[in-house]
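Predict the 3D structure for this chain.
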Amino acid sequence: MLEAIQIAEVVSMLFYTTLGLLLLWISWKVISWMSPFSIIKEIEEDQNTSLAILIGSVFLSMAIIIAAVVIS
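Done. Predicted structure below.
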């Protein structure tokens, strides 16, 4: 089983995982920069559930798009 694993596959998996996480982090920074209020304060302190659902759905959609690009 271990003989079937290629070192190139492991390296590419680590590279694309890092790339995907980097792109999600950059998108979080852009969303935080563009919003007129503190998203973290709204979610944590003010318990804004709708904003949390919205941000979660944005990240989920971005993750699906990044995964589709990486796979292709």
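DSSP finds three helices and no strands in the chain.
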